[in-house]
Amino acid sequence: MADMWLTSLFAFLVGGLFCVIAQILIDLTALTPARILVMYVVLGVLLGALGLYEPLYDFAGCGASVPLVGFGGNIAKGIREAIDRDGAIGILTGGFTAASAGCASALIFGYLSSLIFSGKPKKL
To answer: Which of 40, 102, 100, 98 lies closest to 69 in space, CA to CA?
Structure first.
C-alpha cells in the first residue's frame, strides 16, 4: 500500500514538474504552446535515444509516460525495436508503428467529440 502512494507521489511530482517548466516557458519566453509541445516530444525522443527515458519511466510511471515526453520516448523505443528487428528501414517505420495507437485514438476521439459538442470560434 505504501508503494502505491509513493509511486503516485513520484508520478505527480514528475508530471507536475513537466507542467511547471512548460508554464514558465509560456510566461517568460516568446515560445508558443505548440513549439513547447514539439520541444517536449523531441526531448522524449532524445531521452529515449540516450537510454535515459526508461529509468525516468521506472521512477515516475505515468508522470513520465502520459505527457508528450512519453510520446517522444515511445517513438524512440519503437525505432530502436524496429532497427533491431528490420535493420535500417526501422529508422523510418519504427516511430510510426509505436505511435500509431495513440495517434489513431486521438483522431477517433477528436472526431467523436466534434460530433457531440459544437465548437465556437474564440473572440479576440
So the answer is: 40
d(CA 11, CA 61): 6
**Please, which residues have CB within 8 angstroms of residue 1's CB and are 6 or more apart in sequence?**
none
Contact assessment for residue 79 and residue 107, using Cβ atoms and an 8 Å cutoff: no
Render pLDDT for 108-122 as a digit per residue (tens, 0 to 9): 999 999 899 887 777
CA distance 19 to 15: 6
The end-to-end CA distance of the chain, in Å, is 50
pTM for this prediction: 0.72
Distance CA 79, CA 97 (A): 8
Cβ atoms of 25 and 36 within 8 Å: the answer is: yes
Instruction: Give Cβ neighbours of residue 62 (< 8 Å, ≥ 6 apart).
Output: 11, 15
Q: How far apart are CA 39 and CA 121, in angstroms?
A: 27
> Which grid cell sits at 9?
507521489
